[in-house]
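> tool_call: predict_assembly(chains=two)
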Amino acid sequence: MGTRRGTNLPRMGDFNQAVILESIRRSADGVSRIELAEATGLSAQTVTNITRRLLGDGLVAEAGRAINGPGKPRVILRLVADSRFSIGVHLDPAVITLVLLDLSGEVVQQRVVRTNENDPRRLVEVIAQAVEGIVADAGVDRERLAGIGVAVPGPLDADRGTVIDPPKLHGWHRVPLRAVLSERTGLPVVLEKDTSAAAAGELWKGTGPADDTFVFLYLGTGIGAALVMRGDVITGASGNFGEIGHIVVDPDGALCGCGLRGCVDVVCTPQAIVEEAEREGVLLDDREGNDVEAVDARFTELCDRTRAGDRQAGQLLRRAAVHLSVLISALANLLDVDRIVLGGPLWSRLEPICLRELPALIDARNVTRAVRPMAVDGTIVGDDVGAVGAACMVLDAVLTPRASDLFLAE
Amino acid sequence: MGTRRGTNLPRMGDFNQAVILESIRRSADGVSRIELAEATGLSAQTVTNITRRLLGDGLVAEAGRAINGPGKPRVILRLVADSRFSIGVHLDPAVITLVLLDLSGEVVQQRVVRTNENDPRRLVEVIAQAVEGIVADAGVDRERLAGIGVAVPGPLDADRGTVIDPPKLHGWHRVPLRAVLSERTGLPVVLEKDTSAAAAGELWKGTGPADDTFVFLYLGTGIGAALVMRGDVITGASGNFGEIGHIVVDPDGALCGCGLRGCVDVVCTPQAIVEEAEREGVLLDDREGNDVEAVDARFTELCDRTRAGDRQAGQLLRRAAVHLSVLISALANLLDVDRIVLGGPLWSRLEPICLRELPALIDARNVTRAVRPMAVDGTIVGDDVGAVGAACMVLDAVLTPRASDLFLAE
């Protein structure tokens, strides 16, 4: 029987340091020690001690003085953005995206690698070389690298750091990606599901409150969900939170391999939408490849035609929006969140129709309408939210106060 | 923009005290100070200081000495069960259940009140009198009462402590139940959704690890879900976690008022199952009332006949189990839990067929099967899990360490 662990002074010190650092990071124009004490509830003495340590470590710098009413001008503290960096890698079936973020969360270097490499060891080598590449291009000191975050399609085994039979990565079976990549690069590696990484990125770069609560719906080759509850990404018991492929969104929809009809996997994915367009004659049924790129090009065609006013294409995408609204409502009503954030590689193309159609559809299905409306937002991170989120997770481990970090180690 | 709050020494002291008290509570045969230090990671000195305080408050007592190898015999500490009590109230459409729990979580007094009272003020008076009644019957000192936990059907407004238009409580609209009941009884009142209260009870009385992760599926007049993630009940942003009435479990099912077909609300509730039995001629179509009791009696008849070997009734309930398995799989795959716990007033009747049918059905739909099997358990609390859970929530506030309690108040 597990028992909860207690806490002690060193843990408390680390936690308060993370609270202060987060508070400085989130202040756009810098912040004074007095403001930090007010915002965090910590004593002036504690704030002074912690900021001295942060200044010593070079994570924070003094940046002028602010005159604010009578009394001594206050010294303003700011984050030193180039004091630490992290690397984010998004492993997608078609493309590997890498980003290098500085401590403020800005992307300072980006690289896209297209490969047909399915062999896990060789793919790790491709990733490792790309990592070396962006670090060299950016001219960043290796000692300033906090680590590598890798976002992968699920399922994964978070405890072991292994990727298990991801449906779209052929030849992968229980690949110990975390250990192999860490050994090859000599850097700490964090492995996370792509959807949860995206939510971490949204939370980290977001302008919402520190205790923001939202569902992140990731629209890519597959559709997945992630949950941020009061400022924490809920990753589930095994790191596999958010498998929603077999939630029924259209009782009249296509038969799914699972035995149901109209599941997310056979109705909402770009492949499903493109196939339906071909069946209904909205798109010509002459597509040669069935690979991710060929489907993606067709999906772009549908979106472009809708924007240009094509009635048939518009109807089809509006139906897709209805299906998404059923899914989103099921998630929002179950998870009791304040808002929905949509993102992922498909988002920029679906944004116009989704932001027009979804709010009213979701409001009609909101069972807690009497408590609060359900906001529908697009991601503020962009198409690379998976890679950016993976890098944010690494910064997060350095920067963000986690209540669980207070507990004594077993 | 919200900022996370820091922590300080007094907060740390309270937290560690809760960790120690929980550890003593969860030890069946008592525990020594040395074992407490090992289990919690706290220093011997800290454990000694905290247990001195707990002894002084009468929450814990010394209970003999254990000889364990060479060296001085160790003093065993045990919880003093009758040092604190709490009251749990489950407000159900048909019946109000009240329980009085001692600090060990044992039910020392129980009372059921049947009322057709729909007027909120008069219903609060009925509850208040029943509370006075069980406290008097048990002969418990008022100073030892920690408070009242009330489990209500959602939706509710947790911040305001109000019940909002619960679908089955006619005449209720934004009733400030927490404030009114607290004023009337002079006791602190905690208001929680019935499903989340049930999960709290399961967690509190359970034998699982302190960081247990499970979905609790509440089977009553309505069907609801609750989530326990690493030992914390996740109640959602507004206290309304677990609204699952419009998740589609049978694409061929009846049309729902929401526009979909085969939603939980029109397929899985006892009313839906009884109506289907009547439509198919499994039950006579001569039911006079459509109230909760009449439906409940019919549902019992179906379960009894299934147990007696009636083929038609058995087929109908097996189909209900299939629908439940679709729901449970959707929840388990989304929420990434280690196990499913079923409970609520219907559970004892459905247990035989569910425990026979569900595990294989759920395993077949488990998308993280490669990581771990999905366990299916019945509640260990029993039919009164709503009321017991509501009382546990009050004890919980006294006893259970919450990381969030470490944060400084705003």
